[in-house]
Every structure is written in C-alpha cells, then in structure tokens.
Amino acid sequence: MRTFDQSTIQHIAEQLEMAEASRQQISQLSASYPDMTVDDSYAIQSAWTALKHASGRRSIGAKVGLTSRAMQAAVGIDEPDFGVLLDDMLLPDNVVPASRFIEPRVEVELAFVLERDLCGPGIGACQVLDATAYVMPALEFIDARIQRIDPVTGRTRRVLDTIADNAANAALMLGGNPIRPGSVDLRWCGALLSRNGLIEETGIAAGVLNHPANGVAWLANRLAREGRKLSAGDIVLSGSFTRPLLLAAGDVVHADFGRLGSLSFRLA
User: Fold this and answer.
1) Torsions phi, psi of 236, nearest 5?
2) Side-chain half-sphere of 166: how many Cα atoms within 13 Å?
3) Per-residue confidence of the chain (268 residues) as pLDDT tens digits?
4) Adjacency order of strands within the sheet including 262-267
5) Are 52 and 43 in contact (CB under 8 A)?
6) 3-class secondary structure for 195-263?
C-alpha cells in the first residue's frame, strides 16, 4: 500500500536524479519518512525511470537483487527486489570511468537475453529457459545515490531506500561466451572475482534461488502484479552469486567464468 502522494514521489525522484548527476548523496528516505512502504519505494523508482525516459534514455531490461536467503534475512524482507536497466548503463569490457559513480561496487551475475516475451503469473524456470535466446557472463555495478550509512547516527539504509534507488543499479557489463541455456547446467556455472591480482570472491549460480532462471521467473511473476511483462530482447540480470566488491579508482578487476569466458576492466 502506498502512503506517499504523487507530488512527494515526484519530488524524491527529482532528488535522486540530482544526486546521481552531482554525485552528492541524499539522506535516507526510510529515516525521513518512517511510514514509507515498499509500494512507495517502487513508485519512486518508476517516477525516476520516467525522468530518464523523458531525457531520451531507453529501457533495455531489468535486474533482480537480494536473491540469497542470507541477504533477505539481513534486510528484513522475504523476496528479492528489482530495478531497471537503461541503455547508457551498458559499459564496454575495458576502462570504466570512476567519475560516473559515487560508491561503486561490482557483483558477478549471469545475464539472460530473451527471445520471447515472459508474461506472468505462473512463470517457472522451464518457461524462462525456453524463452531465452542465450545466457552470458555479466558484471553489475551498483552504487548509492542514497546514503548507505547516516554520517550522524550511523544508521544503515533499509531495503526501502535501496528499491527507491533503482535497486542500487548503476551499470552493467556483458561479455565472455554466450551460451544456449540448455547447453550447460546453469546451477553449476561459477566465477572467480579478482581485484589487482588477488581473488576476492568466488561463487556459483545456484546461490541465486537454487537456479539463476528462478530469479528471472520471480521477476516475470512480480511484474505481472502491475500488468507488466518481460519482453523479447530484454536483458535480465538474474542476481549476484558473490558479495558486492567495493572498488576504488585504479582497481583492475577480472571475473573468470571458466568455460563461459571472462570479463575485465580497470576503474580509471
């Protein structure tokens, strides 16, 4: 249930847009608005996306977050969250400018590229695999336009803040070897994430709701509540199977997906 009126939603969306452009974070919404709900957060996210569309940006898909039980328990929810991918978020496998981020972190994921629409409810992993053209290695860059930690109180931000902040999404990178979804057991696709030559994180895709296709299925069913669907051509980041790695300018990052190839970049 929403508690915010449309003018409040629009005002916060404009604040987020300014925070991203200026790289100056805003205060935690969940602290400023104690009656805020998840529906309010998604309404803010939608209003911010509408501002992006009005400026000429185009949606290219979606991301699923908070797919592990441990992360859900940590933030006090019982389902994942989602955000919108936009065309200018897609980065080349090369040098990434640090200037586009505030507090950049990176996560390892599998990206599903759809060849047919997915319209819930009732979507399961098999329908996702059947509707997918190919799966490929991906890195998601996450950021914080809303303060992660309040500098005065030390309070950490809540999932309500993260959802409003486009589920923390800031950019993505695709690469490696695209594969047909039935050619390997996606549950056992793994990755080694290294920074400056040292392995920082490892994981396998089964950490995403027992199968990464389940993340996409959850999203298709969740969007159906609002009369929306996933469309042919959409890129869907199915959920991270490593913890987010905090980055600093000068870092060189390499993600080794084994037989699926690798992705590398330098944050400059």
Assistant:
1) -125, 115
2) 28
3) 889 999 999 999 999 999 999 999 999 999 999 999 999 999 999 999 999 999 999 999 999 998 876 566 556 666 899 999 999 999 987 899 999 999 999 999 999 999 999 999 999 999 999 999 999 999 999 999 999 999 999 999 999 999 999 999 999 999 999 999 989 999 999 999 999 999 999 999 999 999 999 999 999 999 999 999 999 999 999 999 998 999 999 999 999 999 999 999 999 9
4) 95-96, 262-267, 252-256, 190-195, 198-204
5) no
6) ECCEEEEEEEHHHCCCCHHHHHHHHHHHHHCCCCCECCCCEEECCCCCCCEECCCCCEEEEECHHHCEE
pTM, 2 dp: 0.95
List Cβ neighbours of 134 (8 Å cut-off, separation of 6 or more): 113, 178, 179, 180, 181
Mutual orientation of helices 6-22 and 38-54 as an angle, nearest 10°? 60
Distance between CA atoms of 56 and 194, rounded to whole angstroms? 35
Element (H, E) at 64: strand 59-65
